[in-house]
Every structure is written in structure tokens, then in C-alpha cells.
């Protein structure tokens, strides 16, 4: 009996020890998990703006002489964010807009903006690309299947237009896109990439080599690895053909020798814009030039850059014909065809020695600037975040790790000493805060290409958004001015107005040499696939007077800071409303 009791006692001691050990392990694991989550929350709260944010702004205020005289009399209140104006020295407003308030506001919105940047756009309607029409995809395709062909990315035959949809590509989607641009053939590769053109590839492949399923249509084949599934596009109906996007570019002085300047030409009695545009589209040229009964096709070049337009009176007649006084002037139209001289892009073959940021406040045109840089340099840009919507539309650097150094520069909206000092240099893109705030609010509620509804603007979220994000616009610039090692300041408005000169500065800053023709190609494709479409309210003013007072303070602060660093101040249109 004693022996049995001893065994039982021994077993219970072991069990007790085992339970104690398991309990301790469980508590330790839970503690580690809790600490990790707390660390992540702290990182999300402080990653965009360092704990020295208040000191950053305070130092900047002091340096540019922005102080509150009452702070000298009463040392207890925190420093004020003022601009030396009597109207800006009301006690209630001073307290709200002090650096202490700025820091607390920024810490509150960090988690919000993180969620916005890392959120995939899976819950939104399919985005419309410029010139793309969102259609219902069906398994029945219009057009005729030609066959499977070899795809050589270096010498691609179907290169008239290029589209990506790495989630929802279908055969019908690609065919419709190519038909809208007057192309004869549509080719799909890798299950997600669409190419258009008027000439068939030369090398046929075995049908079974086109074995990649379309990303957006199960059971349909969209090419393969280096293999194109090619379809002949069905001609659009006559009414739809007239709808094709032919854009009038203006009246220009004709070059001295039209035949040498333009590689294709046509002489046609009773020539019309539609005739010339159709002819140039078939030849895969983006410009249709009309002078009397003569039609010329080509690209913008150094000899014919389209920069200096002439008075429309010099081009007599209607927009359908042009007698062009004494043959010195001509009418120019943009055909539906894409200028392909700058569409080829790739990753850097070797790691970049200089780590360059493309930094901006959200809504300041960072995506548009990336489009310009990629097409000008021929290299992909990276991103500190991953935006599935951008990746699906061709920004392949989105999926590359942001520190891989395989991209020409890296998009970021971050600020704070640690985040800024990771980069060797930066292009700092600044936009009017009024426009930036509206653009980011539109993006939040309607994606990259849509507009927020009237209900969104009238909700309580809009005032909260302005109160939080206006301070971020200012602190973002101030931090980069303080901690940035080598900066190129680019104002969105200047880039939009003088695209080629400003883009040339950006390309030179990135230490890349490009040709004039490539820059002209970028200018010809300046909008890319991310220009907002849809109903835009005219004369819409969502800002209250209180909001304007808040934003104007930050405008004056940033302007003084830029001038204090020997940079050009903010454009005149930023001047408080």
C-alpha cells in the first residue's frame, strides 16, 4: 500500500511540474505576442513621423521667426504654430494648431493612413483605365483566333498599345481595348498582359505552348511564357468607329520638308480627318497631320515637337479639311494609337548605388510622376507600400521589395528622421494642399480614378480628414527639408505646365541619359492610365473658412521654410485664398 501511494505521489509531482511548465510557457508566449503587437502599434503610430516631430516643427518655426509673442510672457503653455499675423493669434486657434497638437494629430492618423496605403482595392468597383471601358466579360469572344506565336520582349511585333490586368484580364477585355484603338490584332501573354498591333508576329509556336489561363476568366487561354495568343479583332460598327478618340492638337507651322519629317503619307481628294486618322492608325502612328489634300503620319520629334502652336486662323477651312495658307501651316490630330517609343520598361540590371526616394504627401501626384519617370528612363519605380491596384495596371515595381535597389526610385509618403535618412537622395514632390487634400479624399472613397460623392463631402469625415491631414502636409515637407541629404524640389504645378524641362531635371537627378524623342514620347503619353474620369462637380468648394484659415497657416510656414533652405518658394497659386 505504501509503495502504491509513493508511486501515485511521484506521478502527481511530475504532473504538477509538467502543468507548471506548460502554464509558464503559455504565459511567456502570450506576453511575447502582446509585446509584439504593442511594438507594431507603436511602429504604426510613429513610423511615418518620428517622436521628434514636435521638435522638428518647433525648430522650423523658431528658425523662420514664427513665434507667439505671448509665449515669452507665459512660459507654461507649449509653443504655438503661428505666422506672425494678428488674425492668427486667437487663443483657441493657437492651442489647436500648436506643434504639440500637430504631433498628437499626426500620431492619431498614422494607423488610418497605414490601412489606406496597404489596403488592396478588392472591395471597389473595377477601375477604368483611360480609354478602357469596363465591360462584362464572357467566355464567348468576338473576333477570330489566329494562333499561338513566339513573344520576344526585345522585338515585340504587337507593340501598338500595352495593357496589364494581373487580376481580371480576359480575352474579351483585350479585344475590346485593341478595337477601341483601331488595331487589327490583339495578343495575350502570361495570362494577364494585352498587346495590340496591326502586324502579325513572324514566328508561330505549337498551340499547346499557349497554356496560361486568363487571370479573370477560367477556361480561357491567354498566351503562355513568352507565347502570345493572337486574335483578329472584330471591326467596330460605323457609329462606334466615329466615337474613337481622335483628339485635335491644334494648328502648327509645318516643317520645311514634310516628306522627310513624316515617314508615311497619303494624297486623297476630299480628305477628311476620319480618313487621315484611319490611315495613320493602320500604320500605327500617333499623329495625323493634314495639309490640304495631303495626310502625313508620324511622331512628335525635335523637328516637329508640337510645343509652339499657331493661331487657328492660319489653318483656314474646317476641322475636316485644311487649305493652310500658302502651305505654311497644318492641322494636327492625335490618333487612337499609342506612342510606343517609350513604353518599354525593365528593372535595373545591377543594384543601384544611390537609394533615391520619390517622396510626396498623398494626393500630390506621386503615381503620375512615377508614370513619367518610368517612361522617360525605361526603368520601373518601386514603392514603400504595396498597392495591388497599381500593380495590376502595370507598375510592376510595386511587388518588388522596396529596398531591393532594382528600381530607379522608390515611392514613399513617409516622414520622420529614421525613414528619411534611409535614402541617399530624394525627389520631393509638392502640390497645393487644397488640391492634394481633395485628391486623397477622392482616392479614399473612389479609388485612383474616381470622385467621392456629394454625400462623402458633406459627411463629418471630411472636416476630420482636413483637420488631421493638413498638418501632415506641412510636417511632411518640413521633415524632408530638415533630414533629407540631397533634395530636388519639384512642384506639381510646374511639372504639369512645363513637363519636358522639369522631367529632364528629374531624369538628370536620377543620373539617367535619355533622348529628346523619348521625352517627346512621354509628353505625348503624359496622362498615362491614371487620369480621373467620371462626373466632376464644377465650381465645387468643399472648404469652410475655418479650414482655409488652418491650411493657410501651413502654406505660409512651408513657404518660409523652403526659402530659408535656398529653394524656390511655393508657386503663387498656393497663396491663401
UniProtKB/TrEMBL annotation:
Keyword match Repeat: yes
A Pfam family hit: Sulfotransfer_1
PANTHER family assigned to the protein according to its UniProt record, in alphabetical order: SIALATE:O-SULFOTRANSFERASE 1, WSCD FAMILY MEMBER CG9164
InterPro entries: P-loop_NTPase, Sialate-O-sulfotransferase, Sulfotransferase_dom, WSC_carb-bd
SMART domains linked: WSC
Keyword Repeat belongs to the record: yes
GO MF entries: sulfotransferase activity
Record's protein name: WSCD1 protein
Similarity annotation: Belongs to the WSCD family.
Domain WSC: start-end pairs: 142-234, 245-342
Coiled-coil segments on the chain, per record: none
PROSITE patterns hit by this protein: WSC
Keywords: Repeat
